[in-house]
Design goal:
seven-stranded mixed β-sheet; Rossmann fold; alpha/beta
């Protein structure tokens, strides 16, 4: 990708990622201007300045680092700057925890960023490449963050099929800067004050751009498949066609859920399926409902790796409830909170979730919020 500017501050479990990139810079493998800043707030601020100037800007962070960027996240999206950021998902404090959950990105879900989640290292690699084109498309011109689960993906060893540098370079193309700050022959103002007579119009334009992103993400996924043979859509369905019980999930645990689906079908004849959410913003409501309606669904279990304190269940649960409302189609549904602070969620826990779905479908009263692998 060879971005023009990369600004970052180290934070576990993102640290090694930026360390390796700093090595690329030192060894001349990229031409990027690498800025080792004093905080995550400064990292995003530097990316905002670089992108406004007409550069391709990228960064990476995790957990509390993303929280520290909070003010500038809205500035990047509000100024319509195509910054791309990897988020190595980490739990938010307190108590302090360096391990993975998705509370960081879910806490930023209304900051105007396009949001993608990855199941494994190769998907993270592919999502990052696609994110450049998604962010820089003139129909969107919005920043993109791509989440991968801390440690489970970021520090695990697995095979990744790398793509040729030249092919990736051709795929992402050259940045077409829009209204660059340093174009002195065509001066513009960036980040101006918007009073009551104009602020709402800016926000309406952001919403329209986010809605445009739905089509752009799909088109870029199709182009990626054509170029490299790897297919990506807003969601991935796994054996949902005849499924009676469906788990909706995002991130690395989707792999465990798929394994459990195979196991239960083979050993017990239980027809379960998985819907993995890749695109969280803009949320693919109709894709999800199309998959559910095409199945034999009797109950839905929504798996959240983040809390919404005071809400019905987790963030993903709320989106599924909205999806059903939009279609006026309602299914028995319950929520599962799992792997907060990096706690293991194994095969037995996923089986427990599907067992509860079976009981829910049979008419048993099941709590709206269920914690997997919780110490009682």
């Amino acid at each position: 990708i060879n971005p023009d500017v990369v600004a970052a501050y180290p934070i576990t479990p993102q640290t090694e990622l930026m360390q390796f990139f700093a090595d690329f810079v030192a060894n001349g493998l990229v031409d990027s201007e690498y800025i080792p800043v004093e905080s995550e707030h400064s990292a995003m601020s530097a990316c905002v300045g670089a992108a406004a100037a007409g550069s391709r800007a990228m960064t990476a962070t995790a957990g509390p680092g993303l929280a520290y960027m909070w003010e500038v996240l809205g500035i990047a999206s509000g100024m319509r700057l195509p910054v791309v950021m990897t988020v190595v998902n980490r739990a938010l404090s307190a108590p302090i925890n360096i391990h993975g959950d998705q509370s960081d990105m879910m806490g930023a879900r209304d900051q105007g960023w396009i949001m993608l989640f990855s199941e494994n290292a190769e998907e993270q690699y592919d999502n990052l490449i696609q994110a450049i084109r998604i962010a820089e498309d003139e129909r969107t011109r919005l920043p993109v963050m791509i989440g991968m689960d801390g440690f489970v993906i970021s520090h695990a060893i697995e095979r990744v099929r790398l793509l040729p540098d030249r092919a990736v370079e051709e795929f992402v193309g050259e940045l077409k800067a829009m209204y660059p700050l340093l174009d002195v022959d065509n001066p513009v103002t960036h980040g101006a004050v918007a009073m009551t007579d104009s602020y709402m119009e800016f926000k309406r334009q952001q919403r329209e751009a986010m809605m445009n992103a739905y089509k752009v993400i799909k088109e870029v996924g199709e182009a990626f498949e054509e170029a490299f043979g790897r297919k990506y859509e807003h969601i991935e369905t796994y054996k949902t066609e005849d499924a009676d019980y469906i788990l909706v999930i995002t991130g690395s645990t989707a792999g465990t859920a798929k394994y459990v689906v195979d196991k239960l079908r083979e050993e017990k004849g239980i027809k379960a399926g998985v819907i993995k959410i890749r695109t969280f913003r803009p949320f693919p409501y109709y894709d999800v409902m199309d998959a559910i309606e095409a199945s034999n669904c009797k109950a839905i279990g929504v798996c959240d790796r983040a809390e919404t304190f005071g809400g019905a269940s987790g963030p993903l649960f709320e989106e599924l409830a909205t999806a059903q409302h939009l279609r006026r189609k309602y299914y028995p549904m319950t929520g599962f909170i799992y792997s907060l602070g990096g706690r293991d969620t194994n095969v037995n826990h996923i089986e427990e979730a599907i067992d509860k779905l079976m009981r829910l479908a049979a008419g048993e009263e099941i709590p709206l919020v269920n914690y997997l692998n919780l110490k009682e």
